[in-house]
Structure formats: structure tokens, C-alpha cells
Design a protein that fits this description.
alpha/beta, 17-stranded mixed beta sheet, 12-stranded mixed beta sheet
Length: 799
């Protein structure tokens, strides 16, 4: 831990160079030297060699290996390690250069929002979350090409970096770069995505992709599809073909092309375009899961397809077939000769959960269950729906109508909201009947009873009920909505569907369910438009591209309108939401209606002054589950949460907190924290304080279920003072051999400094990991007592 604060930015910049250097050798055709790539023949540093030694087991006999043997070893190195090795000697450089890289996927797609931008993505691992991937954005810059990428620097905001390639076309340069990675992987990647309407086939170097199992490509002509099919195997795992949105309803893949083995033999395909399958082709498909816009398949073809499955002659492991069409199908012809079980009240009672999930995920038409003649316990669901443009538009209106009553302060009438007192339609009433078990005695219930029933309805169902009568409207209005989470964030920068350029905005998100993926949420974006406020949201229409919709609120400030709208949802939920996120630089306290949030258990607040934090703390309970405090990136290294404020019970008592800012904890405060997981930029905590914190845990006096404590700082800590009086087990060769998988995972997830294992005096099978690096002292609870097969041992894992 010898570095000084003045040295850190330089080291961070060097790390950033190295991060991009892993792509260096492949950038030689796009102004290699502009990226600051190190010469492949430059001697490796001691740090490079030490890092590599851990991976290849030492250099003792390395020079004696011939090139073929070295290539076999290099195959097991990841790409950054190969870059280190290739700088050790000319022979090593040649061995690395001749070793194919395992490239899992390559993606090239052009940006339909900006006709002069194209994105290239490379994946080195099947798991996207692994992080083994990178992305470049190519765009035209006058006569030149600009290449942009994101650079991540420790403890700083990610930065966008770029280089300029002189006198060249961005489209062609992107394709050359993508194909160079294909070549580096010996053209053996498993997956390819090419969403470029005008792929420049005339400059392509592709001959064949022998290992390709999954391909997604977009085109407006069949010859482009044919060109790709000539370069991939006949037998795929899945296939996706699409055309531009403008052409989806009029351009058709011709019948003769659909005989291609890549279509007829693939087990799964999805076409975002019209496909002229004949009945014969449709019946000969081997796919167990497919979807396409139907042109020529007839009712008889569909009927025969179902009968083949019923008699045991259908495709193996059938999953689904979606035939999209707006034609007026003859349902009696499709179901002729089939034994049908309609989805009546009896079936929906028998399979209530399934029917509800099916309607939510797949949509709901006229549904029948069709059982197999071979095994009566197996069945298909046939869902027939009439898709019509007017009905789609009505559904879109209804989708936003669920927010209607809360838009009354922001030009309610501009959204086309249905009048709450308008009589409900038959469809509204039938839908509600399924949820509340009938209206037979509903009028006899008093308002309190109705409110108890309404509590169990989701929000769209409440909106249907409130239109049935004035009394029902009042009952719904008086029933709190279960709002789980409210977020208000200013100046988010990733609204690319609205604008490629950053703009001042406030995002309001409301979530009704603890699971974000449930879809029970919505998002509105508020921005200034002259003297007015523009509110935008995304509208989804079946089989169409999501569209941005908006309304204009006259003569008002977008910042205040966003806050009023967010707080209105808090009020509708009786201020009882569990989570709250407020990342607004200047929250307008003077117009706020918030008094107290009694059920709030998790809060994330960003501010540049302690009074804003104090204002929010006065409105939340003392006992939280987790707490996050942030300041803006420009202030993170200068602004500090003062010591006196840190005595707040919301900080001292919470079991988990994370501060993206400096916090002036004293040693005394640090030792009294109840949190088992903490992180903050450390100002005043001393080596003695850290030492005592660890000793408390060792003697059984630490916090219960301790997980981690991360103290970020650039100061030059005295390691001997931190470890004084502690029994340490260094992470030497013996320990790394004993816990090899854990050590590798720890370095990948937590980073690696000088590491020690420190064991509990109460239970020697329990231990901490102390990791000291240039910018952080980290303590993790990693060793846990584990019993298996009658034996007790320490199991090491990252908390």
C-alpha cells in the first residue's frame, strides 16, 4: 500500500489503457496507433509476468516448449492474459497470434434512430452477465469515421472515449472490424446477429461459419437472406429473420426460399415478417417452437397440424406455434373433427392459476384445450383471437388509462381518459366477474365491505370497477393502492428511444409489485418544452414497434410537475410504499406534501448538502432495512457527510448501508454500527479503529451475521497497525491451493490486494478475509462452518 493519492489517477489511466489494449492487435486496420496500444514486442512488466505465472504455473520450462505446445497452453488463457504473454518475447507473440480466440458471439446492428450509426458487439462467453464482452459504436463524422466505447475507471463515472479514422466509411469499417473478430475466432463462434439492412457483401471476407448454431439477421430482400444461408450449416438450433418495421406488413419471404434446410430443419425459429409457407411446408416443419406472419397457410392446414399432434405424429417435444394474421379465420374449419374442451367456468376453476398466467403472458382469445389421443394427460391449448387495428388502438388507450385518475392535475383530459362515471361495457363487467365472484349480492354490500373486496383487485381491475356506478367509483377512490416503490430521478441519460442527445428530464417510476420483472410498473419522463412541460411514455401495440407518446402541460415547470405526480402516487398508496428512490439535485421541498412514510424500509437519496438528507430522514422510520446515500460524481471526492449527522438512527441502526460519498465516521461511531454490510469513502476512521473492529468480530463481539465492510480511501494506511495483535493466515501458495476456486472468484468479483484470512476464536471454522489495496480496506465474512458426510470444515465463499 505504497501509492499516494497523487499517483492514483495515473495508475487508473494506465489500467484504462490496458483495458482497451485487449482489443489492440485487432484494431490495426482502424488507426491502431490512435488508441495508444502498447507494441506487442515491448517487454512485459514484472506485474504482467507475476499475473501470468498464476495462470500457467511458472516459466521454468516454458522456453523449452515448442510452438505447438505453447499454443495448447495459450488456448486456456483468457484474452487479457494472452495480451500480457504476447509482450514477453517475439516467440510468445507468434504463439499467441496463431492461437484462435474463443469468440462466442458477434453482433452488428445499425441504429434506426440515427442512420449514421452502427454498433459492433463481441461476446467471449455464453453468459452475457459474465462481462466477457465489449461494444464499439461506429458513426460517420464528416468524411471520417468515429469509433466510441465506454471506459470504466475505478470510483469514477464511466467515460465515453473515441478515436477518429480518417477518410473512410463507418459502415464498411464496422463490418471489417466485426469480421476481423470472426477471423480471430477462426470463424467458429456459436451465434451471429446481423441487423443491417444493407450489409456490404461485396467487401465481406466470410466464406463459412462451421460452428454457427444461432443466427439472427434482418434484410429487405431475399437475396441477403440467401447470402447468409450459404455461409451457415444446414442444421441450426434457432433462427430469427426480420425486416424493417416499415416493410413488415407488405414484404414476404417467398415460398421457394422457405424450403431451405436452415428453416425446415431448425428446432426453433421466429420470423418478424410475412412468410408464404404452403400447407405442405407447414406440415413438414421440424420446429417445436416457431412464429411467423401467416400468408398462405389455410384453416385445413392448421386443422391437420393439430390432428397430427393428437395422433402422436406431430413434432417431438412440441412447444408452440404462433401464426399471426389479421384475416377473418373460420374457427369451425380449424376445429373440425377435434375433441375440444372450452375454457369455461369449470376449466378456469380447475386451472385458475394457469389461465391467469396464460392471459397475462400470451394474451387471451377464444381458448380450447385439446387432449392427446396417445396420452390423455397431455394437451394443447388452441387460442384464437381476431387482431384488428381499431381494437389494438383501443387497447393502447386503455393501457394508459390505468393512470388516468392521477393525471387530473396534469391535463387529465389530454390523455383521452374514460369518464369515471361512464357505464361499464359488457367486457368490463365480464372481466370483473371472474375476480369478485359475481355481482349477485354486490349492491347489498356497504362501502366498507366493498373497500375490503377492492383491496384484492389489481389496478386495471379497479379502473374497470370504478366505471360501473358512482358508488363503485367512490369505493375504489377510497381504497389505497398497494404501491411498492416510487422513484424520481433527474437527468438520466439513456433515453435513446426519445433522443440520441442528453436532455434535462425527471423520470418518475411507480412499481406495484416487489418483483420488477412482474411488469406491474410504469414510467413517465417529464421535460421542459419552452414554457410548457412535456410528459412522455412508451406505448406498446401488438406486432408493432413500441412508440413514444406524449402530452403537453401548459405553462408549468417540468421539475415541479414530476414531483407532484410522484407524490400523488405516494398519497394514493397511503404513503405506505416499502422502497423510495430520490435522485434529484434540487428536490422542491416547498411544494412537497409528504409528512411521513411509515412503512418505508429502503431508501436511496442523492444530495449535495446535508440538509436535504436531514429533511428525508425526518420523514422515514428510525429502523430501515437498507440505506443508500449519494452525491454527484463531481463532489464525491470533496463533499463529506459530517460526523454529527452520522449519529442518526437511520444510519447507526440499519443492517445495510452504502454511501457513494465521503463520511466522517469517528472510530467510536464505526465500532458502534449495527450494519452487517457497509461501504463508504473513509475520512476519519483510523488503523486502530479498523483493528478493533476486526478484534471485536474475532472475539464474538462483532455485529451478527457480518458480511462485508468496505472502507474506500487513497490514504497510505499502516498495514502493521491494522493487523496488530491478529493471527493472520496469508494467502500464500498453500492457501490458494486449498481454496483455489474461492480465490479465483474473489479476485474476479472483489478485486485483489494483500489478502489475509483471520479466524474466529469462538468458532475456528468461521473466518474473515482482510483485503488491503491502494484504494480500499475491505473486510469480508468468507469462511463458514459447514458439515457434510459427518465431517466439519470451512467453506469459503463471497458474501
Amino acid at each position: 500500500m505504497s501509492s499516494t493519492p497523487a499517483e492514483e489517477p495515473k495508475e487508473e489511466e494506465d489500467e484504462c489503457k490496458l483495458e482497451f489494449n485487449i482489443f489492440g492487435e485487432l484494431l490495426d486496420d482502424i488507426e491502431h496507433e490512435n488508441v495508444g496500444i502498447q507494441n506487442p514486442n515491448k517487454s512485459a512488466s514484472k506485474k504482467d509476468i507475476d499475473s501470468l505465472l498464476k495462470l500457467i504455473g511458472g516459466f521454468k520450462h516454458w522456453p523449452l516448449l515448442n510452438e505447438d505446445c505453447k499454443i495448447e497452453v495459450v488456448k486456456y488463457l483468457d484474452y487479457p492474459s494472452r495480451c500480457k504473454l504476447e509482450r514477453c518475447s517475439r516467440a510468445d507473440y507468434e504463439a499467441v497470434k496463431k492461437t484462435p480466440i474463443e469468440v462466442y458471439s458477434v453482433e452488428l446492428f445499425d441504429n434506426e434512430k440515427d442512420p449514421y450509426t452502427l454498433c459492433v458487439e463481441e461476446f467471449f462467453h455464453h453468459d452475457f452477465i459474465s462481462g466477457k464482452r465489449f461494444e464499439f459504436i461506429f458513426s460517420q463524422h464528416g468524411d471520417d469515421t468515429e469509433v466510441r466505447w465506454t471506459q470504466n475507471v475505478s470510483k469514477k463515472r464511466p467515460k465515453s472515449r473515441n478515436l477518429i479514422l480518417k477518410s473512410c466509411n463507418y459502415y464498411e469499417e464496422a463490418v471489417k472490424f466485426g469480421e476481423k473478430w470472426m477471423k480471430k475466432g477462426n470463424y467458429e463462434m456459436k451465434r451471429v446477429t446481423i441487423e443491417m439492412i444493407n450489409y456490404p457483401v461485396e467487401i465481406s471476407q466470410l466464406k463459412f461459419l462451421p460452428r454457427c448454431k444461432s443466427i439472427r439477421t434482418a434484410a429487405d430482400n431475399v437475396e441477403t437472406f440467401r447470402w447468409w444461408f450459404q455461409r451457415i450449416p444446414d442444421q441450426l438450433v434457432d433462427l430469427q429473420l426480420s425486416t424493417s418495421y416499415e416493410n413488415r406488413d407488405n414484404w414476404t419471404i417467398p415460398t421457394e426460399f422457405l424450403n431451405a434446410p436452415q428453416i425446415m430443419l431448425t428446432p426453433e425459429f421466429y420470423f418478424w415478417c410475412r412468410a408464404a409457407f404452403t400447407d405442405e411446408q407447414f406440415l413438414n416443419l421440424k420446429a417445436s417452437k416457431f412464429s411467423f406472419d401467416c400468408v398462405n397457410v389455410t384453416e385445413d392446414g392448421i386443422n391437420q397440424y393439430i390432428k397430427k399432434w393428437v395422433s402422436g405424429k406431430g413434432v417431438e417435444n412440441f412447444k408452440q406455434a404462433l401464426l399471426w394474421s389479421i384475416r377473418d379465420w373460420d374457427q369451425s374449419a380449424i376445429t373440425r373433427g377435434l375433441e375440444l374442451r372450452p375454457w369455461d367456468t369449470d376449466f378456469e376453476t380447475e386451472a385458475a392459476g394457469f389461465c391467469s398466467d396464460f392471459g397475462r403472458v400470451c394474451g387471451r382469445g377464444t381458448c380450447y384445450q385439446i387432449s392427446s389421443a396417445i396420452n390423455p394427460y397431455e394437451s394443447l391449448t388452441l387460442s384464437l383471437s381476431a387482431v384488428q387495428e381499431q381494437k389494438e388502438e383501443d387497447e393502447c388507450k386503455l393501457e394508459f388509462n390505468i393512470f388516468g385518475e392521477f393525471l387530473d392535475d396534469i391535463e387529465h383530459e389530454n390523455v383521452g381518459i374514460l369518464n369515471p362515471n361512464k357505464p361499464a361495457t359488457k367486457k368490463d363487467i365480464d372481466s370483473l366477474l371472474k375476480l369478485i365472484g359475481g355481482f349477485q349480492h354486490w349492491p347489498l354490500l356497504n362501502e366498507d365491505c366493498k373497500i375490503e373486496v377492492v383491496k384484492y383487485l389489481d389496478y386495471p381491475s379497479r379502473c374497470k370497477l370504478e366505471r360501473c356506478s358512482r358508488a363503485d367509483y367512490e369505493a375504489v377512490k377510497k381504497t389505497p393502492v398497494e404501491v411498492y416503490n416510487v422513484e424520481m430521478i433527474d437527468n438520466e441519460t439513456h433515453h435513446y428511444s426519445l433522443s440520441m442527445e442528453p436532455f434535462d428530464n425527471v423520470v418518475v417510476r411507480v412499481q406495484f409489485h416487489h418483483d420488477f420483472n412482474s411488469g406491474k410498473r410504469f414510467e413517465l419522463i417529464f421535460s421542459q418544452l419552452g414554457d410548457d412541460t412535456e410528459v412522455r411514455w412508451t406505448q406498446y401495440v401488438p406486432r408493432k414497434r413500441p412508440e413514444s407518446r406524449n402530452l403537453i402541460l401548459k405553462s408549468c415547470n417540468y421539475y415541479e410537475e414530476a414531483v407532484k405526480f410522484g407524490e400523488k402516487w405516494m398519497k394514493k398508496g397511503n404513503y405506505e410504499m416499502k422502497h423510495l428512490t430520490i435522485e434529484m439535485k434540487n428536490y422542491p421541498f416547498e411544494i412537497s406534501q409528504i409528512k411521513f412514510l411509515p412503512r418505508c424500509k429502503s431508501i436511496r437519496v442523492a444530495a449535495d448538502d446535508v440538509e436535504m438528507f436531514r429533511w428525508w430522514f425526518q420523514r422515514i422510520p428510525d429502523q430501515l432495512v437498507d440505506l443508500q446515500l449519494l452525491t454527484n460524481f463531481d463532489n464525491r471526492e470533496t463533499w463529506t457527510i459530517p460526523t454529527e449527522f452520522l449519529n442518526a438512527p437511520q444510519i447507526m441502526l440499519t443492517p445495510e448501508f452504502y454511501f457513494w460519498c465521503r463520511a466522517a465516521f469517528t472510530d467510536e461511531q464505526f465500532l458502534k454500527l449495527k450494519a452487517n454490510k457497509i461501504s463508504f469513502d473513509c475520512v476519519n476512521v483510523t488503523e486502530d479503529g479498523i483493528n478493533q473492529y476486526i478484534k471485536n468480530w474475532v472475539s464474538g463481539k462483532g455485529v451478527e451475521n457480518f458480511r462485508s465492510a468496505l472502507l474506500w480511501s487513497n490514504r497510505n494506511y499502516d498495514e502493521s497497525a491494522i493487523t496488530r495483535g491478529l493471527e493472520l493466515r496469508p494467502w500464500d501458495n498453500n492457501f490458494e491451493e486449498e481454496a483455489a476456486g474461492f480465490c479465483c472468484d474473489f479476485e474476479r468479483v472483489c478485486g485483489r490486494g494483500t489478502c489475509y484470512q483471520i479466524y474466529s476464536k469462538i468458532d475456528p471454522y468461521e473466518s474473515l478475509t482482510l483485503s488491503m489495496s491502494d484504494d480500499c480496506v475491505a473486510i469480508y465474512g468468507t469462511g463458514k462452518r459447514t458439515e457434510w458426510n459427518g465431517k466439519t470444515y470451512s467453506n469459503y465463499s463471497i458474501p
